[in-house]
Every structure is written in structure tokens, then in C-alpha cells.
Design brief:
The protein is mostly helical. The chain contains three helices and no strands.
Length: 148
């Protein structure tokens, strides 16, 4: 399992905190535009999510500006934000990997077994002298250089 907690700088300097604040100033307006576009695509109305988008832009960008101007107070917000992001990353990566396995790999294996139940002979037969299988030799040895 991937550990996102390992990759985070848990003792950020002033420049890291200002970078975090800039990401808030840019990220929250982008998030609210995405929210408006999603609301318009689903309902055909701009006004449905408009108050939430304005509030999200104002609060997020305002907090980003305050944290950029005062990077000394940004550390608790930085740590809380990255802790929450790491927790979400662990949950989402496990859900996505599990979903991929159970929705893609498992059906593929079941279909393969359904069409070829003796795909890989397993077991031990004491009456057999050898398990060697004869293979007809190739006519052109040059094909060994073009395997793919």
C-alpha cells in the first residue's frame, strides 16, 4: 500500500506555507467554477449552485490571502489540510484498487476459467514417468530474434 503520509513535509518552512496559501487562492475559485459547470451540465441552470460557488470562492481565496500575508499562522491549516488529504488518499486508493480488481480482473479470470477449465494442469500423477512435453522444432532459427 502506498503511504501518502511519508511524502508530506510535516515541518513546512515559510515558503512551503506561502505556496500552500497560493494554492488556496487559485484552487478554491477553480473548484467553484467546476461546481458551476457541473450544476449547469446537470440541470441547465447557472443560478442553482451560484451562492455556494460565490461563498466557496470568497472563503477559500480570502483564507489563502490571509495565510499568504501571515505565514506564521498557516502551519496548523497546512498540517490539517495535508492530514485530511492523506487520509482521503489512503481510502480512495484502496477503493480504486479494490474496485479495479473486483470489477476488471475477477470477471476476466472467471470468463477465462469458464471457456478453458483445464487451462493450467495442476496436480501430481504418480503413474506418469515424466511431465516433459515434446515441442516441434522451428524451421527458421531467425524467428528467435523477432519474439515480439
Amino acid at each position: 500500500m502506498i503511504n501518502p503520509f511519508h511524502d508530506v513535509n510535516w515541518n513546512p518552512g515559510t515558503e512551503d506555507r506561502r505556496k500552500f496559501a497560493r494554492s488556496l487562492v487559485v484552487g478554491f475559485p477553480c473548484l467553484s467554477v467546476a461546481l458551476l459547470l457541473l450544476g449547469w451540465a446537470l440541470s441547465g441552470e447557472w443560478n442553482r449552485n451560484y451562492p455556494l460557488a460565490v461563498w466557496l470562492t470568497g472563503v477559500g481565496a480570502g483564507a489563502g490571502i490571509v495565510l499568504w500575508l501571515l505565514p506564521a499562522i498557516a502551519k496548523p491549516f497546512y498540517l490539517a489540510w495535508y492530514f485530511l488529504a492523506c487520509c482521503m488518499g489512503i481510502v480512495m486508493s484502496n477503493l480504486l484498487l479494490g474496485g479495479f480488481y473486483y470489477l476488471m480482473v475477477t470477471p476476466f479470470g472467471l470468463v477465462r476459467r469458464w471457456f478453458n477449465p483445464k487451462g493450467f494442469p495442476k496436480g501430481f500423477d504418480r503413474s506418469t514417468a515424466t511431465y516433459w512435453q515434446e515441442v516441434t522444432p522451428t524451421k527458421d532459427p531467425g524467428r528467435y530474434y523477432k519474439q515480439f
